[in-house]
Amino acid sequence: GEAAAAGAVEGGKGGAGERVLSALPPTAKQVVHLTAQHKRPRKLLKILTSTLSTPASGGGRNKPRCMVFFSTIKELKVQAAWLRRMIKESGSGVDIPPPRELHSQMRQSERDRAVAEFKAAKTRLLLCTDVAGRGMDVKGLE
Prior knowledge:
Layout: E1 5-10, E2 29-34, H1 40-52, E3 66-70, H2 73-88, E4 100-102, H3 108-119, E5 125-129, H4 130-133
Parallel strand pairs: 3-5, 4-5
Antiparallel strand pairs: 1-2
């Protein structure tokens, strides 16, 4: 199994306990969490809740958006279904927007619509495979 360790990269600068994965613009935050398989859903929910509930920049108009990358479509679909269940359950306390998917098994028109909605901030949570998200340029991400 994978170790339950975490590392974060912010603005492309690494510090103690951090790994630099790539150079990022100063406004971007990239966080990598290596987590045991059985702990991933709750860890993801905790991160999304924290990230998506931060105050909006620009006086409340620009709510934070988040892209989450998965290495397989199967893992993406499992996590998306779990998140949707948690959002629907009354009393679950989950206050995040519904996720939108982006992967190669979608029709091109569906992928285009998912990207357009995310860029326009109509969708604030985009779950994508690393291949589907490669090369995307989304302005204004928190």
